[in-house]
Amino acid sequence: MAGVSTPEAPAGASGQGSVVLDIGPHAGALVVYTSPGMLGAELEIRPAGGEWHGAHTAVRERRVNGRVLFAGVFGSLAVGRYELRVLGDHGDAVAGAQVLPGSVVEASFPTPGSGAGGGPPGSG
Hints:
Blueprint: E1 27-33, E2 42-47, E3 56-58, E4 60-64, E5 67-78, E6 80-86, E7 95-99, E8 104-108
Parallel strand pairs: 1-8
Antiparallel strand pairs: 1-5, 2-3, 2-6, 4-5, 6-7
């Protein structure tokens, strides 16, 4: 039926090894840890100081090494500094990260009112 859209169903928990990364000399990946309360939120990313273009990823439950974490994954980003916000939140960016060549960088995303994210594995 033309012109009818249905919302996407939220994705279930991700298991170990279920994310594809495309990294190398000119690209890295970014894993953004959040609190459980951000499950299903969409994190938007932009090069630091650049325009928001709607590039985003969902915060999902991720089960890794017997732990339950909540994170969004940007599987391939050009090397450089980035800013993050909740998609659709037109305020200031609330977190940043430096993406390095051939690396997986971990960052935490602050949650509204807490000033702290979920933290990378082993941080709590």
